[in-house]
DNA sequence: TGTGCCTACTCAACCGGTTCAGTCGAAATC
DNA sequence: GATTTCGACTGAACCGGTTGAGTAGGCACA
């Protein structure tokens, strides 16, 4: 089946290729009558502009890129990326931009992908996920002058645009909530060390612990998997002066932690309170349901997409602060049992 | 920053554009010495072929498309797609093909996306997920002659290539396992009605129920969410002559079902055995851990990608049967308590 | 009547690759 | 020594859009 081109339309309308291009792109240079006639013909024969030809002449590929740097195993576990993608998509497809996805092994590979995309002119801009402290990807993107939106922050984004949420505030809110319940020994199972948001949460945890004058506030890193969450929980719970509350950096680890506590004969929330970051459907399915920090991830993705499209259009953009995660108290948190 | 082109390489090497093209693509027509010299220059200046120009002259876009037709909420819940994507990606990026993703609202929108992609020459082929009975997308793709691999089946794939797994066999294995344990009243919470694999599993369930001469074998559809899983479970468990085992079409519903059973004071596995389809990390985190039907989804995606790349190269391909899901017995299944 | 200006186009170059039809010189064949 | 053959390479067309320069015709104004 032969694909129709503007030459076909031009022939049928009895005008030149140029006139067809002007007409279909809403440019001046054709009369309204001719424009309507051309649009009608284009619709009739089901014309779609060849994206390659368009990208070759104009500078825009009408596509943006997203590189994910996580092992397959973890990508599956975390609803975060899929929700983010669906939010991004909603915004992009409204403007008929395509999303090009690539799963990479490490930062070096990711940088290579950016360079390749840039060289191939395959994308007009990219999203940067999992921002790190002094992220090496940032200077590369600045050098390439490839429009980019960093999903994360604040800080360490260089001159790139960004979308971020105030995780520190959300963590402090959680700490104060646990403190108000009477908890004085609080532990935390963090995410991958090196990721900026892990670092920000860790710092906020330590600071809040000091400010509130907690007896104990320990935090350990992990890798988001249930196994790691279980291991960390086991270690916390078998230490002397064990914590009465644990905050987990994602829901999967919190669920694993809940299982470990119950296995060890501890009552939740009687002996141990549990808070999960990321409020997915899973948090409501456990026994007891998990108190969780949640926010609208698809909306976060949509904001990021809007920022990126603006950046591609050359508009000056900066950092956009998304809503702060809010705490939904459920059955997994309560006052600690008096000793 | 100016992107290097083959013209730049040609100038530096003192040859024509054509010679550079031959050299870089491994075509005959240049001497080995010249080829090496050109490759060295290309590497030195960091050359990447402009994908638009390549797509415009050759017919290949070096990209394939995947349209997902599920609401954002459900996409996030299910690890399936993310795992599938990471498997697909592994295969594609090895051949430096890009994956273009699009989330669509319904089948009509998906068909429109295929037509647009085809018209825009944006992709060389597509993956078709969530195959339905008499799927309307199949004839459209046949008409467009757009290379496609259907992920699902068997059957209803028309002349398109496909990758499938024998879900019926896996379901029968599960039924026989439960039967051997002593279960005679088995229920099933299925997936979205209309999806072919839901239909295949339902039919296999009904057939096996009859063949084994079960006292009861009821199956209801759902939408994969925990809420629906919980609702269906509640209805099953409050009926007279309630089932002693329930098979769920995904892990999230199984976990929700487990919670419901425990809420209603039923012991798992004593009063109720539970089997989940899709063996994610979650299945091992519950109490008791869930007996589950699992298989290697990233590998499934990789096979699909290989099939699609072969189809794009014009090789004749048919249906590829992937491994059948295998049952991993865990703590959620046991012999039913004698009445 | 000539000049200026605007509208509505046409024409051709251009983007950066691929590919086919030649060309040129050297080696092989008779 | 003339002819054929072949390898190595050049030149130009081509893919399908976009875009700037050029132009014909109409109308207004002095």
UniProtKB/TrEMBL annotation, chains A, B:
One of its GO terms (molecular function) is transcription cis-regulatory region binding. Keywords: DNA-binding, Transcription, Transcription regulation. The keyword Amino-acid biosynthesis does not apply. Signal peptide: none annotated. The keyword Transit peptide does not apply. Residues 4-58 form the HTH lacI-type domain. Transmembrane segments: none annotated. PROSITE patterns: HTH_LACI_1, HTH_LACI_2. Pfam families: LacI, Peripla_BP_3. InterPro entries: HTH_LacI, LacI/GalR-like_sensor, Lambda_DNA-bd_dom_sf, Peripla_BP_I. PANTHER family: ALANINE RACEMASE, LACI-RELATED TRANSCRIPTIONAL REPRESSOR. This is LacI family transcriptional regulator. It comes from Phytohabitans flavus.
């Amino acid at each position: 089946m032969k694909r129709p081109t503007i030459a076909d339309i031009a022939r049928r309308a009895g005008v030149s290729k140029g006139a067809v291009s002007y007409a279909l792109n809403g440019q001046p240079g054709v009369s309204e009558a001719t424009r309507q006639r051309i649009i009608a013909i284009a619709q009739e024969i089901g014309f779609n502009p060849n994206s390659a030809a368009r990208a070759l002449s104009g500078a825009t590929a009408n596509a943006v890129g997203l590189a994910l740097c996580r092992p397959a195993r973890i990508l599956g576990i975390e609803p975060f990326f899929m929700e983010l993608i669906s939010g991004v998509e909603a915004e992009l497809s409204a403007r008929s931009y395509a999303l090009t996805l690539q799963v990479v092994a490490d930062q070096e590979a990711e940088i290579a992908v950016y360079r390749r995309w840039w060289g191939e002119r395959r994308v007009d801009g990219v999203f940067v996920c999992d921002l790190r402290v002094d992220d090496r990807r940032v200077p590369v993107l600045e050098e390439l002058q490839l429009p980019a939106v960093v999903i994360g922050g604040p800080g360490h984004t260089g001159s790139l645009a960004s979308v971020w949420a105030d995780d520190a505030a959300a963590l402090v809110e959680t700490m104060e909530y646990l403190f108000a319940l009477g908890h004085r020994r609080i532990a935390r199972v963090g995410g991958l060390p090196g990721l900026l948001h892990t670092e920000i949460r860790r710092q906020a945890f330590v600071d809040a612990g000091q400010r509130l004058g907690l007896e104990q506030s320990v935090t350990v890193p992990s890798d988001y998997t249930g196994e790691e969450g279980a291991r960390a929980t086991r270690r916390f719970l078998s230490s002397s002066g064990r914590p009465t509350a644990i905050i987990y950096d994602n829901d999967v680890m919190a669920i694993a932690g809940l299982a470990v506590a119950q296995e060890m004969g501890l009552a939740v929330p009687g002996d141990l309170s549990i808070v999960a970051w990321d409020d997915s459907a899973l948090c409501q399915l456990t026994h007891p349901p998990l108190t969780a920090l949640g926010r609208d991830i698809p909306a976060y993705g949509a904001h990021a997409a809007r920022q990126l499209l603006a950046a591609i259009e050359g508009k000056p953009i900066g950092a956009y602060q998304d809503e702060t995660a809010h705490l939904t108290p459920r059955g997994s948190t309560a006052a600690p049992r008096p000793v």
